[in-house]
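Sample 1 of the test manifest.
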Amino acid sequence: MKTIDQEKDLLKGLAANDTNAIETIYRENFAAIKGFIIKNNGYPDDARDIFQEAMIVLFEKSKTSSFTLSCQLQTYLYSICRRLWLKKLQKQNRFNPSIETIEEIVPVEDEIDFHEKKSNDFMLMEDALKKIGEPCKSLLEAFYIDKKSMPEIADSFGYTNADNAKTQKYKCLVRLKKLFFAQYKNKD
Amino acid sequence: MDENLLLDAVERYNNGEMDAQEKLFFEELRRNNADIDQTAAEHTFFLTQLEQLSDEKTFRHNLNAIENKLMNEGVISGNKERTKARVVYLWNRYRRTIAVAAAIAGVISFSTASVISKYSESKKVAVITPLVDNKLNQFEHKLNQIEHKLNDATATPSRPKFEANFRATGFLVDGNGYIITNAHVVQNAKNLIVENKKGDQFYTTPIYSNTTTDLAILKITDTSFNKVTGLPYTFPKSTAELAEPIFTLGYPREEVVYGEGYLSAKSGYYGDTTSYQISISVNPGNSGGPVIDKDGEVIGIISSKETNADGVVFAIKSKNIYNALKEIKKDKDLSIKLPTINSLKGLDRVRQIKKLEDFVYKVKGN
């Protein structure tokens, strides 16, 4: 069992995308989640999917400044996985969702809602990226997603210098922004 | 102010790349000009979105790497251990069904059928079985192995062995190698192959899957597949009539099996208007098979049956295929053309089946 401080450190590591922290959380929690999923109509692969998604929920939450854990990390993860699995079962219309719970759970509805909104926004962004076409898509992805430097990008995309690449990048960005907000505002 | 310049300014401001003076100037500009302030706020939000997307992608990447590492170490495992988990899984999966079945059996002895349906409706006990055969039995498994061995022996260029652990049905909707089946067939599969009557196997990739309608479309990716022409059936957009006689072809066994019945209701499970209720004898493996009327029109696709009632089967209406194709057209810019000429009309059943057989495929996966 971890102390509160150790768990805080883990979450800090998680927020900073630290592979050690992720691995530790995996090692300490996956078995319990898998047990739960298999007991409730799932396959091991379902357990992997759900656990990954739960990790993303946790990651998103750990990055918000207001986030503090009000229970043990294990309980929190379990609650998220349970909620996600329940949703998935309902969506697939698979059997009635009287999921067995012996473990302690905490309410996580807000987290899940937040996560769903976020994935939705990401989808809009990825859609927009798909729609702007090449070379804009690769250019923007190289800079904003893969975090390559401007000189590097200029080089690999064949621009004469970094400034040219930069101008092109902003042109693309303005277009991406328009596409994104057209969908984003539509949605509300 | 030029939008490019403003974008650049916001980006540099957020990244802390402005010197003190420029920063002050920029802040003042925002204070004094509501339009610029609004645009800058929008930019900031937009850039944050991109930033978060990048973060999440990195995170996912890390997650996958760690998962792979732990899998190699044997700390976590995938569906390979399905056999071990299977008994637990099956028991859990059917336990409720068994309980309900037992309960209903009890009720039958005292009361009428209407009471039963009320009972099951009020409790909303979902007892639907998807008709995928994931119990390829040991006998068949052996057969497959022998078949493989034989294939290996007869110097035909052998492809890697395909160990299937479930089987369903699918059929061509376009001769260019597009096969329709159920979403529940493809959703958990890692690899999917289809096999025609002659036993030729082709690798496929799902290009569309919709769990709400339970429809999926596979594309044959194998180069050994040659374009097929003369699909004999058509797909009506209108709803079929009650009591219409129907039949299906499917693969509940390794061999193709014919079944016939009738349309018993214009809506499916709990009044689901996107499907029909049909009365026909089907078994796991029939999932994804065509439901065809006497004129050779495909009115639906078999998807599931009610577990505790006999001969209550649900089929997805053909109209949904048109919607699926529209979505594919929109998302992938890919046109799949349904056949428009029906060459089954007026033939007797035996001839109809002869014509049909070649277009109905076995879908196997693991």
